[in-house]
Design brief:
- An 8-stranded mixed β-barrel has the order 15-18-20-21-22-23-24-25, surrounded by 5 helices. Strands 1, 2, 3, 4, 5, 6 and 7 form a 7-stranded antiparallel sheet that branches. A 5-stranded mixed sheet has the order 9-10-8-13-14, with helices on both faces.
- Helix 14 packs parallel to helix 16.
- The chain has 24 helices and 26 strands.
- The protein starts with 6 loop residues before the first strand and ends with a helix.
- By secondary structure, it is an alpha+beta fold.
Length: 578
């Protein structure tokens, strides 16, 4: 009891205090001598964190009910000296030889730091980490609620899409730190001018979206003009330089006639694009049959093109090898001497599945069309196609005869994590395909995983139960926290290329990669270096002990059908291909 990390208080059968261990004395502010024979509620006052309403004495409940009483959420202990501690507790009755109740033991634990971390993670899941405003997901959730209420109760609201006109100039001339500070200041300026029933989010880059509830289009237009003027009059100071800003704002009406959240956001985005096209630093109100809007909408053709590509089977799969790296081993040469030489471990190569689009212009890289797919929420559809096509191509492989083939990595977008039908679809497709789950590794980005932590952990838990593996992609580029790794149960960390590209010349990148690699290995996760484009980079990641590497220095992306054909031929004619 003296050395326990938990607080312990014992009482008699009437609930009066008999003993406190040192931790209990520290947290309550009472010594055993001062507290003895007092009512527990006097030395152990607890309240609900949110409401501050008193919590019923757990020992009284344990004695009355003759059972264990626990409380693990939203409980705060107010100490004798007004200090507060978030706690978890359990109260257990003590029985005598004949089953009679002799007293109770209260055990409680200080979880202040853990609860604060939980609140921080919850806040990060719904807010933009840079500005503290709502992120796109939380804003869309709120907009959906407003739209649903409007369909039943009526009313009119307004949606604004704001884009800073000169952000790129400042960001490029002064650096990312200046750009980040500008976005923070802009977020505060916009938030300070919101009406009482207004909300704002930063979905990406230098864009902001605002919802003005119970606001007509005309009133929203006046507000947008005032906000535009305030941004124009704002001076951004960075070091010894001063910058004048401007903003283009698109404004649309939100009523029961809106088909969906997506349509409302797209209309506001198009109105903002029109404001930019008409000369920037202006407000454009979306009106029905607006010729400017119609012209702009015709220019946005990616949604139709991507849907047609899916229907007409004009997507195609490429893949790129993920190679195991050598290790250093000591091999004795002569007595008393050892020679250190590299060797390659007998681990198979993996392949990351990559998507391409084929049209009349040829093969189009994903960097061209995926941003549009993400903007217009087409990623779940694309992810489904990739999963289905990959498993179809892998169906029927004789895996037992391909010892050099480790498996295939399939990327999943953050949007698919929100899709309630996506996970059952993946599980069913794996089962129907007959592909061994151990040969499949799913990749999600660090930012998507932490932003959608609950959904990501559920996806990982379900698919790992089937035997699949998981990789956390672009690690280090997002929230960059090791705290969640212990519970996320991923198999690989893919170190982001921003730390890998300059490894031979940048000591800070060496330190970052080494840190990520050591922490990952300490908790049983293997590491993969992305963007290994030169022999010098390859030598650097090998010397740091990274497990795998991926990049043009090892292999270029190739069509999946060709890779599968080569792998099978290599098994069929091993000597001629050796």
């Amino acid at each position: 009891l003296q050395s326990m990390g938990d607080g312990v208080i014992s009482t008699d059968g009437t609930g009066r205090v008999e003993f406190l261990n040192p931790v209990a004395e520290r947290l309550t502010g009472w010594t055993t001598e001062d507290a003895r024979d007092r009512r527990l509620s006097e030395i152990f006052p607890i309240v609900h964190d949110a409401t501050r309403e008193p919590v019923h004495n757990p020992v009284t409940r344990a004695l009355a009910g003759r059972e264990v009483v626990t409380a693990g959420t939203d409980i705060v202990l107010t100490g004798r000296h007004s200090d507060e501690h978030a706690i978890e507790l359990s109260a257990t009755p003590i029985r005598g030889p004949q089953g009679n109740i002799l007293g109770a033991v209260l055990v409680f634990r200080d979880v202040t730091e853990m609860r604060a971390l939980g609140r921080e993670i919850a806040h990060q899941a719904t807010h933009d980490t840079l500005t503290g405003l709502f992120n796109r997901r939380e804003f869309e959730k709120h907009l959906q609620q407003v739209l649903d209420r409007t369909r039943t109760e009526g009313g009119e609201h307004a949606l604004c899409h704001l884009d800073l006109d000169l952000f790129r100039t400042i960001n490029d001339s002064c650096g990312n730190a200046a750009g980040d500070e500008l976005l923070r200041q802009m977020g505060q300026l916009i938030k300070s001018r919101l009406p009482p029933r207004g909300s704002v989010a930063r979905p990406a880059g230098d864009e902001f979206i605002l919802l003005l509830e119970d606001c007509s289009l005309d009133r929203a237009g006046v507000f947008a003009e005032e906000l535009r003027a305030a941004i124009r009059d704002f001076r951004f100071m960075w070091e010894d330089r001063s910058f004048t800003l401007a903003a283009s704002i698109g404004v649309v009406r939100v009523t029961a006639e809106n088909d969906s959240v997506y349509d409302a956001l797209q209309a506001a985005n198009v109105a903002c694009r029109v404001a930019k096209d008409e000369g920037r630093n202006r407000v454009h109100l979306y009106q029905r049959n607006d010729l400017s809007i119609l012209r702009r909408q015709r220019e946005i053709g990616w949604v139709q093109r991507l849907n047609e590509a899916a229907r007409e089977d004009r997507f195609t799969l490429y893949c790129q090898a993920v190679r195991p790296l050598g290790r250093k081993k000591k091999r004795p040469t002569t007595p008393g001497r050892e020679e250190v030489e590299p060797r390659r471990e007998r681990r198979p190569s993996h392949y990351e599945i990559l998507l391409r689009l084929v049209d009349e212009r040829g093969v189009i890289a994903p960097t061209v069309f995926l941003p549009a797919a993400e903007r217009y929420h087409l990623m779940p559809m694309i992810d489904r196609w990739v999963v289905h096509e990959t498993l179809t191509r892998l169906r029927g492989l004789d895996w037992d005869t391909l010892p050099g083939l480790g498996g295939f990595n399939i990327n999943l977008s953050g949007q698919s994590l929100y899709d309630p039908e996506f996970l059952p679809f993946v599980v069913e497709r794996i089962r129907d395909s007959g592909v061994p789950p151990a040969r499949l590794c799913f990749e999600i980005t660090e930012t998507a995983a932490v932003t959608n932590l609950a959904s990501a952990m559920r996806l990982i838990a379900v698919l790992k139960k089937t035997g699949c593996r998981f990789a956390l992609d672009d690690f280090g580029s997002g929230l960059s926290s090791f705290a969640y790794l212990k519970n996320m149960r991923v198999d690989y960390l893919k170190i982001d290329g921003i730390f890998v590209r300059n490894l031979p010349d940048d000591a800070s990148d060496v330190a970052m990669v080494n840190s990520i690699n050591q922490v990952a290995h300490a908790i049983g996760i293997e590491t993969i270096a992305e963007y290994v484009e030169t022999d010098a980079i390859l030598e650097s990641v090998t010397s740091l002990g990274v497990d795998y590497a991926q990049g043009y220095a090892l292999a270029v992306p190739r069509p999946l059908v060709q890779v599968l054909k080569d792998v099978q031929e290599l098994h069929r004619y091993p000597k001629s291909r050796r």
